[in-house]
Amino acid sequence: MNVYEYLLSYDIKPSVQRIAIMDYLLKHHTHPCIDEIYMALHDDIPTLSKTTVYNTLKLFVEHGAAKMLTIDERNACFDGDTSAHAHFQCKCCGKIFDMPMHINEKAINDIADKGFSVEEIHNYYKGVCPDCKKNNSDKN
Amino acid sequence: MNVYEYLLSYDIKPSVQRIAIMDYLLKHHTHPCIDEIYMALHDDIPTLSKTTVYNTLKLFVEHGAAKMLTIDERNACFDGDTSAHAHFQCKCCGKIFDMPMHINEKAINDIADKGFSVEEIHNYYKGVCPDCKKNNSDKN
DNA sequence: TTCAATTCTGTAATTATTACAATTTTATTT
DNA sequence: AAATAAAATTGTAATAATTACAGAATTGAA
Predict the structure, then answer these.
(1) Residue B19: which nucleotide is closest by CA–C1'?
(2) pLDDT tens across A4-35, in order?
């Protein structure tokens, strides 16, 4: 399935901009922020507006085609991988990595039993990634 | 232990402002944002500056006396309860509730085995709280 | 009491995000 | 194919959260 059809499957009308943004999300697992996407696509689509990137990602999230991450304190990041998975952000380089998510059914049930409707599960870790650990030890 | 000693135990020099802010955090489990704290303390300390609230919370987080939550998309929230626990934010009213955290030792070990140093575990849910569920059904 | 260090304050600057009106593009109807 | 309507995009301006910073106030030590 190409990106055009992929967007249609989420009830999103494909446009040049939307296809380019979704394509970027699907091909780059860097959990990009608005600016990363905007700058990356600016070469191909010089008329692209940052407002369009904002609007488009909001649309994607509303239609379930992307997820917004509020892991980074500075600004929102976006993930084209909508499957259940956890994340790890390196405090040193800021990169966000994908990690497997182990859903605890009992924990969810306990919350539901208290009368809460659970719609989203967020799970992430912070620490230092292997690369930064290596680089830091090299300095000594 | 009073708040004065509590701050000292985290190597934080107590001042009128710091004591008031930590006291607010310890007594209110609402996961307040900067503005909530600022407005709540403004009556008692009319000279309080919002910059001081920012600086103080940053200091608390650095010393481990408070945790910053980036659950709410609008602005950062703060938690004086530094024990390991999860959260639930209601998409309707925005309130953040405390939930028990079930740490999955195996998941942490798997991440560590990949060469990552895990320093923080974040776990939260989003959905609708019991009160909002009730209010929404009342409208029908 | 004097001096130095720390803390606090208020304003200005910065940055991310949103609002909105005008323009462009796309789809539909005649 | 031209005219019309609807939707999407753009760019600028506004908003809001956060940070930078310099001066004032407070604290602690000599």
Answers:
(1) C7
(2) 999 999 999 999 999 999 999 999 999 999 99
Which residue has tokens 């509730």? B97
CA distance B118 to chain A (A): 5
pLDDT digits (tens, 9 = 90+) for B45-95: 999 999 999 999 999 999 999 999 999 999 999 999 999 999 999 999 999
- As a whole number of angstroms, the distance between CA A96 and CA B7 comes to 33
Buried b (16+ CB within 10 A) or exposed e, B68-106: ebbbeeeebbbbbeeeeebbbbbeeeeebbebebeebee
Residue for token pair 């209010």: B135
Structural contact between residues B81 and B98, judged by C-beta atoms closer than 8 angstroms: yes
CA distance B74 to A127: 24
Contacts of B49 (CB under 8 A, 6+ apart): none
Check A130 against B110: CB less than 8 A apart: no
